[in-house]
Design goal:
By secondary structure, this protein is of the alpha/beta class. The protein contains 12 helices and 15 strands. The longest helix is centred in the middle third of the chain and has 22 residues.
């Protein structure tokens, strides 16, 4: 029976990955920075562990304290559980916040990865390692379609920190001959997305409008286009990458550009609400650094590992809206 350690297990990607691996017969060790004394009482589950609440009682799921900025906490877990695979999904992942918290973003996203790589080298170089890289590393790249060889030109502290980690993984892979790989993740959504991200904000706001709890949705640039997919599918790609006999880097994307306008129109249409009555544009939500219309070419992972994104935007919109509606 394989054992996997997942940092950031309570987030969107971590929770879906934990479910996937448990279904495949793994023992899953998930780390969280906020384990309290009564860590499994209902209030704590609802506050900190809402995405993994259903896994708490699973005998093959172990929720442990672990902070990648405190390497000894991860070191103890590696010695205790002897994982075959480590998936690093812990990150400060909000791009806008990275400008206000640039130092902690760099420490978590960059030096945290360095600590994990050093632990693998020192304890067990046979551990397979997955790093969640980001499409934000492409930044101001002028290409419409990018692949694994395209130039990285990050224009945010978040993108810079992710590129630092990405380069570290490549360096350690070559220098120490370890099975360390990166998945360059394009935008992926789900009902488990954090509330401070645009798609979740839209789903929750429209649900509140439908229930009479709000009367406006404020947004910025509706013409912004994103390569959107579903997190449930993207974690399958992560797993496939570590099952491959050779470590490598792969773009994980849908390859389809969707505008924020289309996302909003679809969710209002499904909710049977008049978009023009409730939607307002506020220029304070415009971001000068946002990528626009960059599409990921996932042909490499499709050819080598047989993975492709299948969920369409309509299904994802409905799932996110229905989930948001059920929470009020």
């Amino acid at each position: 029976m394989k054992t996997a350690l997942i940092t950031g297990v309570s987030g969107q990607d971590g929770s879906y990955l934990a479910e996937l691996l448990l279904n495949k017969g793994y023992i899953v060790v998930g780390t969280h920075r906020y384990l309290l004394v009564k860590k499994y009482d209902q209030n704590n589950i609802n506050t900190y562990f809402k995405n993994i609440g259903s896994l708490i009682e699973n005998k093959n799921f172990k929720l442990e304290y672990g902070d990648i900025l405190e390497p000894m906490s991860i070191c103890k877990l590696i010695y205790k559980y002897k994982p075959n695979e480590i998936y690093n999904l812990a990150a400060q992942s909000h791009v806008n916040l990275s400008f206000d918290s640039s130092e902690i973003t760099s420490k978590i996203n960059g030096f945290g990865v360095l600590s994990l790589l050093n632990l693998i080298i020192d304890i067990d170089p046979n551990i397979k390692f997955f790093q969640a890289s980001s499409s934000d590393m492409y930044g101001e790249n002028n290409l419409t379609i990018v692949n694994e060889q395209s130039t990285f030109k990050p224009n945010t502290p978040y993108g810079c920190s992710k590129l630092f980690a990405h380069n570290l993984v490549n360096t350690y892979r070559k220098t120490y001959n370890i099975h360390a790989s990166c998945g360059i993740l394009f935008n992926h959504e789900s009902p488990r997305k954090g509330y401070n991200f645009a798609t979740q904000k839209i789903a929750r706001s429209v649900a509140r409008i439908k229930l009479g709890l709000d009367n406006k949705l404020l947004l910025g640039n509706l013409d912004l286009k994103k390569d959107w997919g579903h997190a449930r599918e993207y974690v399958e790609a992560m797993w496939l990458i570590l099952q491959h006999n050779k470590p490598n880097d792969y773009i994980i994307s849908s390859g389809k550009p969707y505008s924020l306008r289309l996302f909003v129109e679809k969710i209002f249409e499904y909710a049977q609400l008049d978009i023009y009555k409730y939607l307002e544009i506020d220029k304070k939500f415009y971001r000068h650094y946002e990528q626009n219309n960059i599409i990921g070419d996932a042909s490499k992972i499709n050819k080598e590992l047989g993975w492709s994104s299948k969920v369409n935007l309509d299904d994802m919109v409905i799932e996110m809206y229905e989930h948001a509606l059920s929470k009020f």
